Amino acid sequence: MIKDSVFAALDAANARRAERRRFLKLAGAGTAAVGGLALLSACGDDDDDDPSPTPTPTPTPTSTGVSTDVGVLQLALNLEYLEAQFYSIAAFGRRLPDSSTTGTVGQPGAVTGGRKVEFADPLIASYAREIAGDEIAHVNVIRAAITTVSSSLVIAQPAINIDGGATGAFTAAARAAGLVGATDTFDPYAGDLNFLLAAFLFEDVGVNAYKGASPLISSAVYLEAAAGILAAEAYHAGLIRTELYNLGAAGRNAANAISNARDSLDGTTGTNADLDQGITDAAGNANLVPADANAIAFTRSSAQVHNIVYLRNTAGVGGGFFPAGTNNSIEALRTSGAFA
Prior knowledge:
It comes from Sphingomonas corticis. Residues 43-67 are annotated as: Disordered. By secondary structure, the chain is mainly alpha-helical. It has one domain. It is 49% helix and 1% strand. It has a two-stranded parallel sheet. α1 runs antiparallel to α6 (220-246) and α3 (122-147) packs antiparallel against α6. The chain is globular, with a radius of gyration of 19 Å. Residues 1-66 and 331-340 have low confidence and may be disordered.
């Protein structure tokens, strides 16, 4: 069904592609710096299933704050591995190549679950392909940025669970949100609505995580990269929220339930307990831009983000989408809880 909002979303996507090209030109590392790893850009048009390589210049890291900067980038790379694998499999039916997931830091892990979605709406399918291209690009540009400090600091992809079966992370998340019963399953690859709900679970968390991490970065080049990715993730989140809202009660109610579940996991209490916000307010009005009274997006700490992707509201490492935990190398930050 063609909607006015669809054309508005496509216009926004065109603007985002132009902004992303500017960001990649400024922030990405050259292929020589990463030992031949090519940076994959998003699809050139919505009918092209394969992201194409885009070489970019090498940034110069600052001499101060390198450990913190690398820790932030490593945290971001964990999340980008998760998103990129989900979208690549859902949109293209394939996992990331080994050249985009290997590293010398952390325990490497496999991806559990996932299959290509048979989309009913070609517009949703085109969105999935474009976002998949973006997330693949994010993985490679962050890996390249870390490599400019040292290739020995690139983290391996940790074990990732994106399965919709009885023991899958998506099913656990859906049960926690009350979308399915205690013995039922949630398959994010079963169709358009389920795919959008799975994407909604990830995208808002990505926006909050980048906003929380960006102030910790001292390198202007890496901050530019993080800000550019934050903007792209915000575009993704806004598009997904709009599509779910346009699906009516089924999309809105399910998204709000996921939002409430995320808030219950992140440990926030008191007046800031509703950091996440659903896609409608208490009166049923659209809430497509979750923000505070000053229209500023909310922040989540690394610990809060980990609680959500681990699907746990208690201290600990591992669970949910990262069964064995995330990979990070900065021990001082890890033991402090900042990057656990």
